[in-house]
Amino acid sequence: GGLHLLALPDRITLSFGVQAFTDTFLHTNLQLVRNGSNDIMHLPLSGDVRARAADANLLPLAFPEVDRAAGLLTATGRVGGTLARPELNGRIELADAELDSYRTNLALRDLDLVAMIDGSRLDFRGTGNAGEGQLTIDGDLTWRNGASKGAMRLRGNDLLVADLPEYRVVASPDLEFEIDGNKILVRGDVTIPSARVQPARLRGAVGPSADARYVGEHAAERDGRFTVRSDVRVQMGDDVRVDAFGLHARIEGGVTTSVRTGATTTGRGELRIAEGRYEAYGQQLEISRGQLLFDNAPLEDPGLDIEARRRIETVTVGLNVRGTLQEPRLTFFSDPSMPQTQIVSYLLVGRPANAPAAGDAETLSSPSDTLALQGGGFLASQIGRRLGIEEVGVENYINAAGEANPSLVLGKFLSPRLFISYGISLTESINTLKLRYTISDRWVLRTESGEAQSADLEYTIER
């Protein structure tokens, strides 16, 4: 170990060695041959390099996406050229390795990578497992005068690429990468044989705006060092399912995603709901037609073409959704024809207003209906927009007997200070009219007319 430098009339030798453990070391022997030149940078260089790491746990330092690494890393090589232009010929191998990325719980196992270096060219190949699937990777990279060019191909079958409570995704990629300086071109196909999407994000949770920027963030930090251009076709398989906030569906179809550094990611194609239903407030709507349409539109804002309906005895009610995901437009239909408020009641609670059914209070207040209520909240908010009212939903109020009584509530601001709501009981023949008038920042007048009459004048004291 250590550093040894020896200068002789005909040559200069350098030996460097570091050994951490018995099977982890780095040894280098270099020699410069004196040829009468006084320019040491251009003297002929020769030597060898040997390295071994019994545990590849240094990889996370070089690759931030890697959270844990294990395996045997070895390297051997011969050094030539000059100090000004050194050349390395050798072999680098990672054997029996494991790589983990905790962001998606990606776990690569039985990973074997071999890279051959020949001067200014590197050729590599590798295999590994992810879940029940196997991946292969191969490619090359050349560099000269500070410029690099290369190509890589990544293929895999049934790779478990994400395994989180919110989603589990199995993918079969066939991707090609081209590198030209700081430009990266990606193209190919990714098939998703199976996936489960069960997001835990609650309705009403607010994420950062798309144009949000952190203090101190620079363009290079946002976009990275490389300029990326990607056109990848993502095709759904036969077992891609979504279970989110009342929606239970199997998805088919495909989208070609286009990624450009600094630009909005767009898509071309369509995703279809092959079979699905929507649950809201304990009721079920069958999705008879469902499409997400991507016509070079942002991925987060596809066009919508959805029809959901339900049949209750001799009545069929439903809704059509058009527009985009960010700005959906709802229309209602029924057979036989009926007022929109009755259609809304059928959609949300399964019967016309003022038609009670036993057991509803228990059903609607059950903790097991949490996700259904969240989904119903989305449906209710969209129905409210369609009807031009601010509040649509199902609420519980306590009746004179102290029992929870669920009601369909419709509410609207008649002025910035005056809000009025009308509650239709779902279990009793009782309707409730409420009025709230904001007199000032501290004074509020509330009245209620229904099973009982009341009026309250409230004064708020700030602490």
Give an overview in words:
The structure is a single chain. With 463 residues, this protein is mainly beta. The protein has a domain of 119 residues. 9% of the residues lie in helices and 61% in strands. It has five helices and 26 strands. It has a 20-stranded mixed β-sheet that branches. A hairpin with a 2-residue loop joins strand 18 and strand 19. The chain is elongated and about 110 Å long. The chain starts with a strand and ends with a strand. About 8% of the residues have low confidence.
Short synopsis of the structure:
9% of the residues lie in helices and 61% in strands.
What is this structure's SSE topology?
Layout: E1 2-7, E2 11-21, E3 24-33, E4 45-53, H1 59-62, E5 68-81, E6 86-101, E7 106-118, E8 121-130, E9 133-144, E10 147-157, E11 159-163, E12 167-180, E13 183-197, H2 219-223, E14 227-244, E15 247-260, E16 266-280, E17 283-298, E18 303-312, E19 315-323, E20 328-335, H3 340-349, H4 360-364, H5 370-387, E21 391-398, E22 404-413, E23 418-425, E24 431-438, E25 443-449, E26 453-459
Parallel strand pairs: 13-14
Antiparallel strand pairs: 1-2, 2-3, 3-4, 4-5, 5-6, 6-7, 7-8, 8-9, 9-10, 10-12, 11-12, 12-13, 14-15, 15-16, 16-17, 17-18, 18-19, 19-20, 21-22, 22-23, 23-24, 24-25, 25-26
Task: Kindly report how far apart the N and C termini lie.
Answer: 71 Å
Mean pLDDT across residues: 81
What does the main sheet amount to? 20 strands, mixed
Number of strands: 26
